[in-house]
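Structure, all two chains, one model.
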Amino acid sequence: MSMTADVLVIGGGIQGCSSALQIARRGLKVVLVEKNTAGRHASGVNAGGVRRLLRATPEIPLSVASMRMWHEIEALVGDDCGFKVSGQIAVAEDEAGMADLHARAAEVQALGYAHEELVGPNELFEILPALSRHCVGGLIARDDGAASPYHTTMAFRRAAIAAGVDLREECRATDFVRKRGIWHVGTSAGPVEAAHLVNCGGAWAGAVAAALGEPVPLEPIAPMMMVTSRMAAFVAPVVIGLKRKLSFKQMPNGTVLIGGGHRGVPDTEHDRSSVDFRKLITSARTVADLFPIMRETQIVRAWSGIESRLPDDIPVLGPSSTEEAAYHAFGFSAHGFQLGPIIGSIMADLVTTGRTVLPIEPFRVTRFRPWAEILSSGG
Amino acid sequence: MTAWDAIVIGAGPAGLAAASLLAEHRARVLLVDEQPAPGGQIYRRIEHVTERRPDLLTLLGADYAHGADLARRFRASGAQYLPQSSVWQVTPEREVWLSRPGQSEQHQAKTVLVATGAMERPVPVPGWTLPGVMTAGAVQILLKSAALKADEPLVLAGSGPLLYLLAEQCLAAGARLAAILDTTSARHERAAMALLPSAVLKGGLSYLRKGLKLRAAIRRSGVPWFQRVTRLRIEGTDQVTGVGFESRGRPEHIAARLVALHEGVIPAQQMTRSIGLDHEWDPVVRCFRPTLDAWGNSSIAGILVAGDGAGIGGARAAEHAGAIAGLEILHQLGRIDGATRDRLAAADRRGQAAHLAIRPFLDRLYAPRDGILRPADDVTICRCEEITAGAVRTVAAQGCPGPNQAKSFLRCGMGPCQGRLCGPTVTEVMAEALGLPPEQIGYYRIRPPLKPVTLGELAAMDAAE
């Protein structure tokens, strides 16, 4: 049986659900296909950081716009998504690190943004009383915070369905052909015909781009996280490392979530990933150094989720360079969760008007073209 | 560090038999176990009791005493032994990460035998989380440690061979039993009768005699023995004060401060799940068990499972399964050829078959009641996070498609026990709520570490990359 829609969205992560939601709210008929269940991979199991702090420069305008949506998240999706404004702070462990933070703060201010503020040692230890005294300062974004990733993705999913999106889970898109202005997409639940195609396929999005004739060097990764047993409240903001990989936060229930980018082993063929404790040893050392109070705490669970990154660690976002009426949003390189709300708006802008007011040119799919040519020439 | 020929996890009958056999054949074998001495749950403290407590040895019976031979053989075998060590991760590449008192270390093996045994099926009846409620296994540990106090009368409730054995052992130890509440159903009893002749013919007669003997001893003791017990609920606010139930449809009540619950045992699947082995559903016992071939090989090469962790068969069947898996490992290591393996395994296969002959009858007779598998809405099923069956049903109705998503919705299964106690119930409740078979619903993805490890212990490991 054939399904028809104005727009077919591939991928039921936060980007796909957010895009489907915003497109449907503009009155278009949307089918969303997800090969597992919504939020099964990176969107459901990430560290939940809602962060503008230390974003790559091209991402800052998007991140700032998305943060405004986070502060109104309940109005957007009818759920608070567990979002709490706790601040996020990057900690410098030595003077060289502090010099980097000074340079960063100056750069962001020069761009006209005020959300990143330098913090001296006195305020640093006021904010983080348990922090090891070898640290010298920090950079804080006071209105940043964290949310519950799975709750958030499910809230977007529910809102999308309520907006009329036809969500098909356990449904895998397999082939993509555009004939006479209509996309004909084969899926495990039968063919779909749609005027527009939106690729939010996460770690699996590279196959869609390749099918459109514009391969990108997308690398599946499996960022790992650990969670501890409950502790009395001792740290309010999310703490991120500067030279060492760390994202550290205490949840409302007292458990401490430790992430930051150490990677496990992704297995995209079987839709699963596994943790690598060798690297988590490094992660544990970083935490033990920065927060000595943590040494006796028990690690209760470690896990990883499948995500994908691009060589320059920013996503592909925007229209296809080879096909009409096709758009990409993938390769968020382990920091896409906060961008989820704004990505939906951008994709809805692109689908309905062909343009968006936000500067997305740096994320163009063609920026890897030399790579693609090398690959196709077999070099 | 060179790889071990084999790492055996668990020092119960399967693990002891396998490790002994491997070491006797000069394989480099490491046996890792949580307890301070060999024996597992079934032969817990067997060396101590044999040497120091002949009184306890008599009381615990000949089946328990058999464990002494296994322990003796193991000690003489030359196998390396790490007691008091918790394995907290096994990878498909056969790395074994474990925690000894104060430190963690990582070992590599050519083959891994998981012999982690069974766990008691969770018994989520109203009030089961109150102080004063124990598992039958906990009572047995008290018995084997000579720590069961005789002054507080104990109510034993549930069904299954272990319940009767425990009742008899308690009586022999002089403990006071307030009552036995037998939940075995008439329906299951009728269904089981059809399987009795085959069980007897194939070698199950000795088990049957043992069971009848236990029942006779209980009857002789005069302890009130309520049959066809349903609607069991444990009462109290901060501590158990009593037990309410119906026996043959008639309401009853007993005052009690100590209750032991038991509804049979199921394979402990935390480790086999976390490695990523394939599992299959047993529709009679209503549990998952790893998918294995006749030698104990799992879906991942070089990882084998033997004993009750592979499917409930009891201690003697586990011992044979351990020996069979040990022979297969020797074959995989190239120490013996296939024909030798088959020849050496023949006696163990016969023994295993004889000990398993009674199982279809027992499995049917003591199949779990629906009320235990799928408790009422107000009953807590996840003790760590205090999540009720009703909460799981609610999120299922809201579109939560399975146990892993329920974790994210509710935090059920995310406490310190890692879902060990609520996993089986969550699968059953979600299967019922979504109208799907349990094998399709699946089970929690089990995350390492399987046992809590401190951050400092992990930070101090020298296996960093």
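Residues 204 and 268 of chain A are 7 Å apart (CA to CA).
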